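New to this. Explain the following:
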Amino acid sequence: MPALAPAVAAVRLAVRRALTGLSGAGPVLVACSGGADSLALAAAAAFVAPRLGRPVGLVTVDHALQAGSDRRAADVATWALGAGFAPAEAVRVDVAGRPGGPEAAAREARYQALAEAARRHGAAALLTGHTRDDQAETVLLALARGAGPRGLAGMPPRRDLSGVPLLRPLLGVSRAQTRKACAALGLTPWEDPHNADPSYARARVRADALPALVRALGPGVVDNLARTARLAAADAAALDELAAAALPATSSAGSSSAADGQAGVRAPGGGLAVAALAGLAPAVRTRVLHAWARELGASPAALSHRHVEALDALVTDWHGQGEVHLPGGLRVARRAGRLTGAGPSG
């Protein structure tokens, strides 16, 4: 019996670790484009999941952005059926008219379709093939945007996607390993032309920026960027906990539902108490203000660092300035030692 290829073993081990202890009786669904990363993931899931007593399915998304994309999606679904995936389906999405650039619009459409498929099939989890290289690219893109710790934390190994756990088992596996795994298994990956299209920021990072860093600083830079994401994620989680304690949930406007009865920074009668906010560490205070702005109704996607910085200035640099305008027509003002919010017509 031939020895198992190290790359195949590495991908299978990563998937086993992700699936061990997973709750729920439904299948795990693999999001598979047909590229090397998701194809290696799918092959590993098809091997590991049944051995853990769990069915495995596959969903491939056709973004309809390239000629022949429907045939590519159909080919992936056909392969999946033959490999024992159930369900195995191709889903077409409409990217046009969505907010943001083409990358953001395609991502939003894709995750929406994947979430709907996961709910439709009662999936216990959805798996995506993001690798360690993808994580390093994400950190570089966050640095270029001037992102804070939350951005530098990159992609979490697990997050909630419309009530379904989204798992990224391969964040510790390199792109080279997924390609070697496919070769060892006799699988031919699809090469997405968008991955080499310089009009996309991630493609430029992949083709130019990250290789330049590797040449200048050595091959360990990819591991180090991914490690930075893990460390930043741990720090961000701790800061988020402190912010949540300072801004307890409310059961109704102005009424704290915190178990200990403490209102934190919430002011009697509604809004936030400036004095309490001023006493918080800056990293905690800005998280509180961000969470409160979302609570008021500001869209997370539209809420930027500039908005939070303006809210923070009402606390730390008060000189009688006017209202801060937030996405959605919301307005925040400082009056009588409180920050208060109003809607578009309030």
